[in-house]
Amino acid sequence: MLLLIQYTLVFASVLTLVALGGCYSERSGIINIGLEGIMVIGALGGVLVLSFMPTSTPAFLIFIIATLAAVLCGMIYSLLLAVASVNFKADQTLVGTAMNMLGIALATVIVKALNIAMTNGADNSARLSFVENRQALIIKEGT
To answer: Of 21, 24, 99, 142, which one has the fewest beta carbons inside 10 Å?
Structure first.
């Protein structure tokens, strides 16, 4: 039961933050349909930083650095909508839809390429291994 509550809180908090970002952008007059793509690219940035950090780093520092990397990657990716809409006068709805598709495709390609590079050409799976560092993100019972 504790695991179910833990995963619910993790996923709900991420989706709540994305929905809050969508509310702010809609309130300011920007149609940001690309929020899912921004979320995926941010998650990819956080996972990549988490997977390449040394295991001797303290857990709190790992959490802070991975979170900041995810935020930074999402912010940089969201500039795509800003540049396309402001400088090139593109339709915000079309650019947001393209950002969603590009974000998921880009994350898939990067993870598969890194897995092939890490396993010397054998494509075993589509997931990165960061077993030691993800222990910093797991809530333990009794603490």
So the answer is: 142
**Amino acid, res. 111:** V
The secondary element (H helix, E strand) that includes residue 49 is helix 35-52
- The CA–CA distances, whole Å, from 48 to 5, 30, 111 equal 26, 30, 9
b (16+ CB within 10 A) / e for 116-141: eeeeeeeeeeeebebeebeebeeeee
Output the pTM of the full model. 0.80
Q: In sequence order, what DSSP letters do the residues of 73-94 get, joined into one string? A: HHHHHHHHHHIIIIIS---HHH
Element (H, E) at 104: helix 92-118
The pLDDT tens digits of the residues spanning 56-65 come to 889 899 999 9
109, two tokens: 């390609």
